[in-house]
Design goal:
Elements: E1 2-7, H1 13-21, E2 26-31, H2 43-47, E3 55-58, E4 61-64, H3 66-77, H4 89-100, H5 106-116, H6 126-143, H7 157-172, H8 179-189, H9 192-199
The structure holds glutathione (GSH).
Length: 209
């Protein structure tokens, strides 16, 4: 059985959602954030030394990083679902989006989050962070022109990966200027598996409002 180690209000929500989409045999162990620091509890370090979430265990295997976990689950348990055929051109696009969600796209969001907690002195950085945020949001917005999903207009693991960006973006910005991204987020929120996970797991603040 697959165990998803889930930190409340975190990116691991995506992995629970994927397990539900695939109707896998899985269980969720939930961890609470420290009320003052919002950091993960030390118990997570017993699962993986980095102490981050998501992390899954599956028999002898322990896998970290959302993108790697999505890839692992779809390769081993997907039976071809939710990803393009290996070797196809769409598979390359799928890999690009899968990586992009936790590399290029997330970086300016994390910088914004961290610098917002610092005292004065970081203001010189803000224009650069803001322009990078706008650049990445515009890129995502244009990729969704005339399509519902990022790869071949079919729902895939890449959409699950990118859903987090669409969910946290409104915390910093209105999605008013990014209607395609807002509609994408709403489509994710309307998936049956997403709704099921949310209804059975109250530890996620970025779902439908
Ligand atoms: N790139 C990693 C990010 C993992 C990560 O930083 N997770 C956050 C939650 S969203 C976390 O565990 N934070 C708690 C902490 O750093 O103590 C992934 O996508 O899995």
């Amino acid at each position: 059985m697959i165990t998803v180690h889930h930190l409340e209000h975190s990116r691991s929500q995506r992995i629970i959602w994927l397990c539900q989409e695939l109707d896998l045999d899985y269980r969720v162990i939930s961890y609470k954030r420290d009320p003052k620091t919002s950091l993960a509890p030390v118990e997570l370090e017993k699962i993986h030394p980095l102490g981050k979430s998501p992390v899954i265990t599956d028999g002898q295997n322990t896998v970290i990083e959302s993108g790697a976990i999505i890839d692992y689950l779809l390769r081993n348990y997907g039976n071809g679902r939710l990803r393009p055929r290996t070797g196809s051109q769409e598979y390359d696009q799928y890999q690009q989006w899968l990586h992009y969600g936790e590399s290029g796209a997330i970086l300016p969001f994390m910088l914004k989050l961290y610098t917002s907690k610092l005292p004065a002195g970081t203001s010189a950085l803000q224009p650069r962070i803001d322009s990078e945020l706008a650049r990445h949001l515009s890129y995502l917005e244009s990729a969704l022109e005339d399509v519902d999903w990022f790869v071949g207009n079919k729902f895939s693991g890449a959409d699950i990966q990118l859903s987090f960006i669409a969910e946290i973006a409104p915390i910093l910005y209105s999605l008013h200027d990014y209607p395609n991204l807002a509609a994408f987020r709403d489509r994710c929120h309307n998936r049956e598996a997403y709704r099921y996970v949310l209804a059975n797991n109250n530890f996620y603040a970025y779902g439908p409002r």
